[in-house]
Design goal:
- The structure is a single chain.
- By secondary structure, the chain is α/β, with parallel strands linked by helices.
- 21% of the residues lie in helices and 37% in strands.
- It has two helices and eight strands, in the order βαββββαβββ.
- The two termini are 19 Å apart.
Length: 121
């Protein structure tokens, strides 16, 4: 159902370097980019993630209660993505671990304050 999600940034190159590293373990890479956006994907027909400077030129903001969930495939990928996010300057929002039922996730914020979770079920 979801085609792509867009996250705002104040510094496109800094954000792209962050997401290059964080999304690498998912096999995602840059599939489209221009002067205000970089889009990541890992195959035709799969959901994509884009980072961009806001069209209205106002400051981007991270929504309260908004979170992007990245299907990591394995616990090792969850742990690796979380660690890579912190290594690249992101902040910890919850260390990788079991939550409820079969959900295993690691929560982090990117350099612009957007909240993400790498997870596997």
């Amino acid at each position: 159902m979801i085609g792509y999600v867009t996250l705002g940034t104040t510094d496109l190159q800094r954000a792209a370097t962050f997401y290059d590293g964080v999304l690498e373990s998912l096999g995602a890479s840059r599939i489209m980019e221009n002067e205000r956006m970089v889009m990541y994907g890992n195959g035709p027909g799969n959901p994509m993630l884009a980072i961009c400077t806001p069209w209205d030129k106002n400051d981007p903001s991270a929504g309260n209660g908004t979170m992007i969930a990245l299907a990591a495939g394995t616990k090792e990928n969850v742990e690796g993505m979380h660690a890579k996010a912190l290594e690249l300057g992101g902040s910890d929002e919850g260390a990788p671990g079991a939550r409820t039922g079969t959900f295993y996730g690691g929560y982090f914020r990117d350099l612009d304050g957007n909240k993400l979770v790498a997870f596997v079920m």
